[in-house]
Amino acid sequence: MEITNKNIIDKLEEKNNLSRDEWTQLFESFNEDDRLYAAEKASNVAQSIYGKDIFIRGIVEFSNICNKNCYYCGLRAGNSNIERYRLSEEDIVSCCQDGYKYGFRTFVLQSGEDPYYDTNMICRIVSRIKKDFPDCAITLSIGEKTYEEYKAYKEAGADRYLLRHETANEDHYSILHPDTMSWKNRMRCLDDLKSLGYQVGAGVMIGSPGQTTKCLIDDMEYMASFKPHMIGLGPFLPNSYTPFKDKPKGSYELTLFMISLCRLCLPHALIPATTALGTIRPNGREQGILAGANVIMPNLSPVNVRDKYKLYDNKIISTGNSDECRRDIEKRVESVGYQVLIDRGDFK
Ligand code: 5AD
Ligand code: SF4
């Protein structure tokens, strides 16, 4: 008897992995009914571990200057149609102070690959925030660095690191990046971060140019073996000032399906309902939670720079202060029957 997509989803839930043939069938023939079936299972799995709690992380996008040239991203060095900014150490710390007042217990410091913030500076910022807020976790998301740099940040107090692998397929990587960037170095970074004891976040864009079923399967196999603590997934969205400006955006449904599959594959993972998901659909993040996501990452950057961190067109930005952001997120989370938790929200 032919095996149905629902049978395959059941098997994934039970074994946390599938054969390449099973993955191929799922990706190439899933329908809306299968997607909802996976979402229900995935959200039950998330609830069995994390309950109905959604963790919030405050992101401080402290610099949009980048010396890399990823073809998909609006912050790429080659984009001259963007107003660049850098926040001072003082500004960064003050965003965290603000966030703390409104219940944030994780701060994500994110930027382009901006060499202005050297190792000493990053370490100083991290240790200062840790000293002011010892009950908070610090996540860095500042790109590819050396082992020694990652080690220094860790010793300064950084707890987590986000570095999406972007694609587990080396040929696909070279479609998304210029040849000055290397997939092997990306993988080396992720291995270094893991070995240094960080909680590590990997992840991909769904529907990035050149992504095939084989790439998605490679991603699932990579994640099943690397076992990231966090998984960032969002649809690819074109940015008008990049070489991929005319490429179609990724599929909303496939993004939700991938969230569910990742949850079934790695039940304990921390999976955010991303800004890109909220950009492609007004209630995309709420649907992400219903598909198995359990983290939301509102913006804590100063209001006057928020519209400048433009990875892709039409990125949703909240114009309110940290308090208003927090309330908006709370309302969204509660609208689907969950609650926001004041907690560091560590991997269980
Ligand atoms: N569309 C969607 N996601 C993007 N990112 C960068 N550019 C885009 C885009 N055009 C994602 C990448 C990167 C993260 C910071 O944002 O996956 O790792
Ligand atoms: Fe720079 Fe990151 Fe954008 Fe690549 S994805 S251009 S490294 S900010």
Describe the protein.
Helix content is 44%, strand content 12%. It is of the alpha/beta class. Helix 3 crosses helix 10. It starts with a helix and ends in a 7-residue tail after the last strand. Bound molecules: 5'-deoxyadenosine (5AD) and iron/sulfur cluster (SF4).
Provide a quick synopsis of the model:
The chain has helices at 5-15, 20-29, 32-50, 89-101, 119-132, 147-156, 170-176, 183-195, 213-226, 252-265, 275-280, 284-290, 322-335; strands spanning 53-56, 58-63, 106-111, 137-141, 160-162, 199-206, 230-235, 295-296, 339-341. It is α/β, with parallel strands linked by helices and 348 residues long.
List the helices and strands and how they pair.
Elements: H1 5-15, H2 20-29, H3 32-50, E1 53-56, E2 58-63, H4 89-101, E3 106-111, H5 119-132, E4 137-141, H6 147-156, E5 160-162, H7 170-176, H8 183-195, E6 199-206, H9 213-226, E7 230-235, H10 252-265, H11 275-280, H12 284-290, E8 295-296, H13 322-335, E9 339-341
Helix pairs in contact: 1-3, 2-9, 3-10, 4-5, 5-6
The structure holds 5'-deoxyadenosine (5AD) and iron/sulfur cluster.
Residues 72-73, 164, 166, 205, 234, 236-237, 239, 276, 311-312 line the site of 5'-deoxyadenosine.
